[in-house]
C-alpha cells in the first residue's frame, strides 16, 4: 500500500500498519516539499504527487494527513483510479452493527458503539469514545480522547479537538471546529469554531 503524506502522522500510520501485520508500505506521497523526495522515510521512498505513474495500479492508498483539508488530495488520487483502504488498530472495540466507509482510520483503544456509521476518510484517533447511533460524515477528524455521546451527528469536514465532549443528540455542522476540551451541549452550525465549557461560538469561517 501507499501512504499519502510524509509527516509525523504518516509515521504513526506506518506503525499501525506494522501492528496490523498484513500490509506492506511501498511508498509515501509528498505534495508540499519536493526536496523531501530525495530522501527515504524510515527506509521507504517518498514520491512526488505528480509522479503517481511510478505507483503500481493495484496498490491501495491511505491518506495520513490529519486535517480535514485532506479532501482535495484524496479526490486527486481517486480521480486517477486508485482505491483506498481502511485501517483499524487491533486494540479497538467496534460493535458488530457499526458501518465504516473506505479510507478511514480507527486508532488504538477507541470504542465505537452500536449502529454508528462512519463516513469516508474519517480519522478516529487514539482513545476516542463514540456512542451508539452516531452519524459521522466524510473527512472528519476526531482527536485523541474525544467523547461523542449517542445519537450525535458530526458533519462533513468537521474537526473535533482533543478531549472534547459532545453530549447526547447534538449535531455538529459541516466544517465546524470543536476546540480541545470543549463541552458541547447544543447544536453547532456549519463553518464555526466553538470552545469552552459549555462550548460557545468564537469564530466564523467564510
Say how many strands there are. Answer: 25
Supply Rg.
17 Å
Q: Strand count, sense and closure of the main sheet? A: 8 strands, mixed
Ends distance: 36 Å
Shape assignment: globular
Question: Which residue ranges are poorly predicted, with pLDDT under 50 across at least 5 consecutive positions?
Answer: none
On the 0-100 scale, what is the average pLDDT? 94
Give the SSE order as H and E letters: EHEEEEHEEEEEEEEEEEEEEEEEEEE
Q: How many individual helices?
A: 2
Main sheet: which strands, in order across?
7-10-13-16-19-22-24-25
**Strand portion:** 25-35%
Short account of what is shown:
By secondary structure, the chain is mostly beta strands. The chain contains 2 helices and 25 strands.
Please characterize this protein's 3D structure.
The chain is mainly β. Helices cover 11% and strands 31% of the residues. The protein contains two helices and 25 strands. It has helices at residues 8-20, 71-79; strands at residues 2-4, 27-30, 40-41, 44-48, 60-63, 83-84, 87-88, 93-94, 99-100, 105-106, 111-112, 117-118, 123-124, 129-130, 135-136, 141-142, 147-148, 153-154, 159-160, 165-166, 171-172, 177-178, 183-184, 192-195, 200-204. Strands 7-10-13-16-19-22-24-25 form an eight-stranded mixed beta sheet, covered by helices on one side. A six-stranded mixed beta sheet has the order 3-4-2-1-5-6, sandwiched between helices. A six-stranded parallel beta sheet has the order 8-11-14-17-20-23, with no helix packed on it. A hairpin with a 2-residue loop joins strand 3 (40-41) and strand 4 (44-48). The radius of gyration is 17 Å and the shape is globular.
